[in-house]
Amino acid sequence: MSRPAALLILYKNGDKSNQRIPMNLQADMIAMAAENHHHMIDIAPDAATDGGEGEGEKKWLRKLTSATVNTAVLRGLIARTPMLWYLGERSGTIFRPRARCGRVDALHAVRAVAIGPFHRGDHGLPFLDDAKLPFMRYLQDQCGLDVDGYVAALCSERDRLRDEFSAEDGDAAAAETLDSEDGFLEMLLLDSCFLLVASLMLSRAGTGDDADSVARAASINRDYFILHMAVAQHADDIKLDMLVLENQVPFAAVKLLAASCPGLKLRHPVEELVLGCFDDLSPKRARPAGHAGAGEHFHHVLHLFHWSRVPADKYFVLSTPLKLLRIKKESERLFPCATELRRSAVWFRRASPSPPPSSDLDMWFWRHPAVPVAVMSVPRFHVHEYTAAVLHNLLAFEKHFYWAHGACVTAHVARMEGLLRCPQDATMLRRRGVLAATRRNDAELVALFRELGAETVGARLPDEYGVMLDAVARHRGRWVSGWCGGFVLHFFPSPWVAVSLAAAAALIFVPAMLQTVYTMLGYLQQQSNS
Fold first, then answer.
1. At 144, is the secondary structure helix, strand, or coil?
2. CA angle 117, 119, 122 (to 5 degrees)
3. How far apart are CA 415 and CA 462, in angstroms?
4. Any idea what DSSP says for residue 386?
5. β partners of residue 348
6. What pLDDT score does 183 carry?
7. What integer pLDDT is reported at residue 324 of this predicted model?
8. Cβ–Cβ < 8 Å for 67, 42
9. Which end of the chain offers a freer environment for a tag, N or C, measured as fewer CB atoms within 10 Å?
10. What pLDDT, on a 0 to 100 scale, did the predictor assign at position 497?
11. How many helices and strands (H and E) does the chain possess?
């Protein structure tokens, strides 16, 4: 009897005792299990045993070992078991979100360049596929790009790179690009060349010592000047397009491209070069410069940007907080507004940056049982014209990858939505220095975070959110905190009232105290003379 036949008989007999199986057969069984992931093995028909009872046995055996059946069973198990929810995530990392409505859809639209397959049919973009050819030529002339070698490296990684895309929304053009071998490689070649050259031109890291060799080699000719000016003219739109979730290519392709350019001598990793493009965007970096790429694997540029903006080792979704499980109404999940917190003796303090840089998306709440006043430390958050687009795409990223990369942005938006319920809340936070917006009034700020908060409904929130929400609720439940906050609001409605009272006290008591001192000094002097 052959070894595979013996293994099959042992499997059919259901013998699970390792002591009855020879050691060499045990090794073969382990090897077969390792070759067939998740025990999804399809047994091919054997001509020597076709027909009769053997055929009937193979039918039920093939059914038990069918990959389709096993996949369906695993999905059902994941759906019934909350602790296995993270196993049900899709393998792709570059999505085209389906839930779009109204002006939110415009926040995900591209304006300058289509990166990846999803926006390749858009018209009117300054950088179409033909416009990306000079970027590849630039790398050939200035950095010694070996196009043939790079395409060969892409071919060897083609299957792994294709798995990064998820085109399950019926996008025919994207599906055609992903299914075509030549079209897929051409897309990766052109888009990765554009990303690398644009990063060299826009990055603050790329304009210093990191790209000194490229700067010396690059001759200021007509073609290079036109290319540089075209990128500079659309710099703001290019940066925002690089952060759209569905406008991505695998970052591994960009790293392969940099490795295929022997003339590109970077002193820092490629990740640091790309991050240098966003040094002037808010929220600011939460990781020290020069640490990007150390032991980290990034799926795409948006993943790298998200990693650089969130605090390390915080806001990871380990479980649903018990506090949130006890909440019945959706409105109770919201933070109390800023005015209500002030009425409960909660003082807002602007968090001061400290090395290493603190995150603009992190908040702290401090309270002590013996002190009626609590402090909420909030970093200064700048709201610009591009803030809505950046936060929407970060929320879309966390919506798909909260199980692996946390939900810091989701928690921050949920807290800000609760704090800003009316224009008076925005006015107070502006005065406290924790909110800054030059192009938006208070009502527009409230509408912005309300729109952003709509995307957090039903999202999994990290434990830090539930812990802070519970601490705020306990503080507001103390009568002494309510009395202290009401007293301050009634008698000191604004800082100028306190200043006026202090000035009045100084005008009344200081002259009286000075008169008393002079009288005592005169009396003592008189006594000493006598």
1. coil
2. 135
3. 12
4. T
5. 376
6. 92
7. 54
8. yes
9. C
10. 53
11. 25, 5
The count of other CB atoms within 10 Å of the CB of residue 530 is 5
The single-letter code of the amino acid at 308 is S
Q: How far apart are CA 167 and CA 172, in angstroms?
A: 9
Name the pTM for this structure: 0.76
d(CA 40, CA 59): 15
Q: The tokens of 516 are what?
A: 């008393």
How many angstroms from the chain centroid is the CA of residue 395? 7
- CA angle 67-71-73, nearest 5°? 120
d(CA 174, CA 169) in angstroms, rounded, equals 10
| CB-CB contact of 482 with 343 (8 Å) | yes
Q: For residue 106, what are its two tokens?
A: 């415009």
* Beta strand 374-379 pairing with 364-366: antiparallel
Q: Which residues contact 411 (CB under 8 A, 6 or more apart)?
A: 315, 461, 462, 464, 465
H or E element: which one contains 433?
A: none
Q: Which secondary-structure segment (H or E) carries 136?
A: helix 133-143
SS (HEC) of 246-314 = CCCCCHHHHHHHHHCCCCCCCCCCHHHHHHHHHCCCCCCCCCCCCCCCCCCCCCCHHHHHHHHHCCCCC
Q: Which residues of the chain have pLDDT under 70?
A: 1-58, 60-65, 74-91, 97-105, 167-170, 205-221, 293-294, 318-333, 353-357, 481-502, 530
Q: CA distances (Å), 81 to each of 87, 320, 384, 476, in order?
A: 10, 14, 42, 36
Buried b (16+ CB within 10 A) or exposed e, 362-373: bbebebeeeebb
How far apart CA 139 and CA 62 sit, in angstroms, is: 53
* Joined tokens for residue 91: 């393998």
Residue showing tokens 């917006």: 437
Task: Name, in order, each residue with C-beta under 8 angstroms of 235's C-beta and a sequence gap of 6 or more.
Answer: 202
Angle between helices 251-259 and 147-156 (to 10 degrees): 140
Distance CA 468, CA 130 (A): 52
How far is Cα 292 from Cα 210, in angstroms, rounded to an integer? 14
- Residue 237 · residue 190 · CB < 8 Å: no
E strands present in 381-497: 381-382, 435-436
**Percent over 70 (pLDDT), the chain:** 70
Contact 280, 390 (CB under 8 A): no
| Whole-angstrom distance, CA of residue 438 vs CA of residue 282 | 14
Instruction: Report residue 487: phi and psi, to 5°.
Output: -65, -45
Place of tokens 């925005």: 426
8 Å CB contact between 450 and 483: no
